[in-house]
Amino acid sequence: MTLSDQYRTEGCAVSFELFPPKTEEGIEALCLNVERLLQFKPQYFTCTYGAGGSSQRATLEVLKRVKEITNLPVASHLTCVGSTVEQLCEYLTQATEIGVDYIVALRGDPPKGTEEFCVTEGGLRYANELVELIRSNFPQLGIAVAGYPEVHQEAPDATTDLDNLKRKVDAGADIIITQLFYDNADFYRFRDQCEAAGIRVPLVPGILPVTNFKQAQRIAGMCKAAIPASLEVEMTRDDSPEHQFRVGVDHARQQTTDLMKNGVPGIHYYVLNRSEAAAELLDGLQTAGSAS
């Protein structure tokens, strides 16, 4: 099944994003959480890696384990940061050898301590160039790219950001997975803009169920996502872990049910290697897997 085919199923397709733990104990815990998430019949799992490619090898190890546990397709993140074209191709070769099915192709953030993205000599400058590289040299791999409902923090305006997204799609991307957002109105506005721009591939909203307000603030600051006033008021009303967890999960569940009612082809959950919040918000919902 191709990546775009994952979104031609009846119902709403679900996928989960992981990141590579630093210890063997962390990997074991991740595997347990993956097993718990299988009850929601996800279409695939993705795995990111550390800044500048610091945990690329661990990413492939995690994906290999996940594929063994689930027998599902898996996707690796891949960025242009710190890599030559030759190194990118080496990674893609290793990924295909262990059975990676899809790539989430990103330019990548500037390395920690720097403010601007710098092209590696012999490397790539933009994500659309990475998409072209994959499509030309590894045509069997599905390709996801990132979209930004609230505009990428480096883009001068929404029009420029949308033009950049269209270049990635025209280069051969199969689907778009969005940056997290807390207000569905931002996603619907973005969806309308993509439609008007002639972007026709599946647009998959990305949801992070936040379980404490400090986490929400930190992540919002990193990715330029606005926190709705109603969510801020409710989360700051009580700083107990139980209250914070419940409010965050309830908000993500409300986002999920509203997105499903409004016809999204799927939802990608950033689960931070934990299953509790995702399990709570998805319990009883009619996803693509539960509809089959």
TrEMBL record:
One of its GO terms (cellular component) is cytosol. Keywords: Amino-acid biosynthesis, FAD, Flavoprotein, Methionine biosynthesis, NAD, Oxidoreductase. It catalyses: (6S)-5-methyl-5,6,7,8-tetrahydrofolate + NAD(+) = (6R)-5,10-methylene-5,6,7,8-tetrahydrofolate + NADH + H(+). Its cofactor is FAD. The keyword Membrane does not apply. One of its GO terms (molecular function) is FAD binding. Pathway: One-carbon metabolism; tetrahydrofolate interconversion; Amino-acid biosynthesis; L-methionine biosynthesis via de novo pathway. Its EC number is 1.5.1.54. The keyword Cell membrane does not apply. GO terms for biological process: methionine biosynthetic process; tetrahydrofolate interconversion. Gene3D superfamilies: 3.20.20.220. Belongs to the methylenetetrahydrofolate reductase family. This is Methylenetetrahydrofolate reductase. It comes from Neorhodopirellula pilleata.
